[in-house]
Amino acid sequence: MTNSRPRVLIEDWLPVAELGIESRRERGAASALPPLSFLHIWWARRPLVASAAVALAGVMPTWTEELAEAFPDAPEVRSELAYRAWLLRLVGILGDPVKGRRMIDAANAAGVKLQGNGYGYRQAFRNAVARSDIDLLHSILRRTWGELPTVADPTAGGGSIPWAASRLGLPVVANDLNGVAASVLRAGVEIPATRGLDLLPEIKGWGGVLVNRVEKRLREYFPLDEGESVTAYIWANAVPCPRTGRLVPLLTDKWLRKQAGKEAAVRLILSADGADLQEPRFEVVLGRDVDRGDASAGTIARGKAISLYDNLVIDGDYIKEAAQSGQMEQVLYAVAIRKASGERTFRAPTRADIDALRAADRRFDEVKDGWFVSGILPTEEFPDGNDLRPKQYGLERWIDFYTPRQALVHGTFGEEFATLIPEVRDALGDRADDVLFELALMQGKALNWNSRLSSWNVARQGMRSVFDRHDFSFKWTFAEFEGASALYSWCLDQLDDAYGGIARLLDETGAAELGTNTRLHREVTVTQGSAASLTLDAGSVTHICMDPPYYDNVMYAELADYFYVWEKRTLGRLVPDYFRDDLTDKDNEAVANPARFAMMGKRKSELADLDYETKMTSIFSESRRVLSDDGVLSVMFTHKRAEAWDTLGMGLLQAGFTIETSWPVNTEFEHSMHQANMNSAASTIMLVCRKRTDRANGRKVYLDDIEHDIRLAARDAATRFQHDGIDGVDLLLSTYGPTLSVISQNWPVYSSTPDADGRDQLLRPEDALALAREEIVDLRRSRLVGQAAKVDGLTDFVLLAWDTFGAREFPFDTARLLALAVGGLDVDDLERAKIVSKSSGKVSLLTPKERLRRGADSGLPGVTPEASSFEYIIDAVDTALYIAEVDGQQAAKRFLDRHGYTSDAGFISTLQGLANAIPRTKVKGAWVVPEAGLIDTLCTLYFDDVVLPEAEEMAAQTDANENTLFDVV
């Protein structure tokens, strides 16, 4: 061991640009995600390449000449440059992703198609690490720490961090409070790390036995025409018309496929043989027979329906009441099939389909009570929480999320799995439970793709899973998997591919060199319990590398209940301790969950914030206990809201940590980064922490004492990270780590303002973060308009809003903070000035047309073509743009000349700032943000001094969250 507190690589360097590109590349295509993503859904998994880099750089010593001398035969440590290049290789980056990304961007701009993927190597997670590299790494780590350092993740969730660390042969401890997550950790990390590919033949063999038994029992309920296979049964929820009593299917539209020349839609038949039908029949129309107008006309929108029978509105409250009273029915209206010829098409339900459904309903009625008693079917009710839409539409119990036939399918699997357990144990001995554990995960896959919340994706012609979004959005129409021959055979294929892919990546890394058969030893321990009470000895962990819950981003426990109530009856037979409770543990989950405090009325959000801070402080305190004195804590965190950073920062400070440095890594999927009406934080901030020691002197430190250091740290960080391609919201976030670092180095720090009783009060991190935002505002303003001086408050806000968010719409909280930073404004001031509109926690920048003032309001801020002067430059600019759009550019020129704006420095600098800040993107030749096009034309004609950035042509936007047969989470 080299010294008492080795300095680690992440404290000096992390390849943020390379990791950002590789992280986005890892998540860029649904079909090319890491196999861990396909094993079982978990929400908000971190990219493997970023996880590997942080886990590894937190234990690798920083390069020194002494290190190079200790390993004279290792070129990897001969110089600092070689050492850093080696880290990139250890995490699978085998080329220069920055150069590759530039080549791809240049080729796209020129309309040139590159050969290969543009990078010259596969995605980083696919690349194995040689045994010689692993052996050298382990030798360096043992020299540094005295033994191989243990990496622990107390809130391991989907398992990215422990999997990446285990792959490199580091001892790993992975914990999660949630029984579903702990099961994913065992199946995705522990079992493949210890069993590897040796287990795959037994998974396939016994999986085949299980699937065949399920299929044999269910075949009669899914009749197939000769040579036909069913892709999906497509259903609609329906309610009685309140006036006629006849059934109204709730269809958003009637399309099944929109592809030109291959159109498919349903047509509703309301009468037959001169008599009105009590419920409609359905015909499938194809190709030229499709009436596009009728196909696009639905019966429901925004929660309200139109009756097919009298064309009058059916109120949304009536629909909910009907659902809650059991009057909402489910009607099968189309079947997506593949013919023997391979052609994909659609047909209407046949008599055989309807008879099979009725038979399945009867069979479910016969078995359900016995299954409830014997623990095959869930009996639990859907609990109150943040998303109550299922209850509003009659889904009171978890079993209500399925039609009788779907429930019969899932129950049959559960019963056959229970029967299989003793058979596998008799045959396989100590390997049996690992095989059974993997097989049980097929159920989670099936539940996610076969439910009243799964749906038909018209655009992609495939199924859409329940959790294509992180919520329980109710589906007016839904899709059912063919449950006999298709569903579980597909789930087994997915399991084979996922487990095989996971195990192969592990086995290939550190594989024995030619002539030997020594397999890389891996130690993985999975625990289920609170991160505030770990089953680890004090000081036993070298690196705690964690990706904690992000405040209120995802309510993991609420979502996981969907699987928990079923898996406690399958996985729970193998690991009952993971599933002790009726539902997941929400009381001890570290998220800001207002639903837990619903009885407190207006204080519920405040109490949720306090609860999150208390729990994170407890988790960080426990982390400090199990961390060695020379160890490192790495925290991955991302959130746009200042409250989230305030509570996280306070938790770290109160638990006794200093923040040594931080690194922003752009980890998010890049598809929607430039959409005009969306805004999101794309970077994950990696905070690097150490145990704090008490300051030598007892002098009290106040915010005023460290304000200069905070501003300097924020400006230095922003300047540095701008060069790594970090901008917008992420640039603001990149300054939060350095700001918290200044506070933590001086903690305890007291506010400059005493409390109500005149006593000193501890500083809230948000007070310091506000200083950092002010500093970034000044820096970005100078970049945009070429001068540091403020123009005016309203103009500054518009400039900085476009620059920061790159979108018209953004969160209210962030708008409030930006308004304060640019000049002490609040959102109400901006709304009165017609700069923004606000609704439902969001703020939108208004267009010049929307800012128009007339009559008595013409003296207020806004667009006023007849005004003799303007107090705010943004009003003058928007008025010019409004006139150009409505009356033409010549009229705009007369306006500019009348006011002297063609030579006005403030007006010209504002135009330049807006040209730099507003996204200059086009889709099919049309400007995404109309103001960008107006400014482009105005400046081209009349303002030669304004430099216009290149416009970017983008493909038509699609939903980045959509997936088909893939878990994109």
Shape designation: globular
The N- and C-terminal alpha carbons lie at a distance of 40 Å
Helices, by number, come to 31
Indicate the low-confidence ranges by residue numbers.
670-680, 957-969
Mean pLDDT: 91
The total of beta strands comes to: 28
Strand order of the largest sheet: 16-2-1-17-18-20-19
Name the structural class: alpha+beta
- Estimate the helix proportion, in percent: 40-55%
Strand content: 5-15%
Rg calculated over all Cα atoms: 30 Å
Largest sheet: 7 strands, mixed
What secondary-structure arrangement, pairings included, does this model have?
Layout: H1 16-26, H2 36-39, H3 48-57, H4 65-70, H5 80-90, H6 97-110, H7 131-145, E1 151-153, H8 160-167, E2 172-176, H9 179-195, H10 200-218, E3 229-240, E4 247-249, E5 255-257, E6 264-272, E7 275-286, H11 292-296, E8 300-301, E9 304-306, E10 313-314, H12 316-324, E11 329-338, E12 344-347, H13 351-374, H14 389-392, H15 404-428, H16 432-449, E13 455-457, E14 462-464, E15 477-480, H17 487-508, E16 524-528, E17 541-546, H18 556-567, H19 604-626, E18 627-637, H20 642-655, E19 657-666, E20 683-691, E21 701-702, H21 703-722, H22 728-734, H23 736-746, E22 749-750, H24 765-785, H25 793-805, E23 809-811, H26 812-823, H27 827-832, E24 836-839, E25 842-845, H28 873-887, H29 889-899, H30 905-917, E26 921-923, E27 926-927, H31 930-942, E28 952-954
Parallel strand pairs: 1-2, 1-17, 2-16, 17-18, 21-22, 26-28
Antiparallel strand pairs: 3-4, 3-11, 3-15, 5-6, 6-7, 8-9, 9-10, 11-12, 13-14, 18-20, 19-20, 23-25, 24-25, 26-27
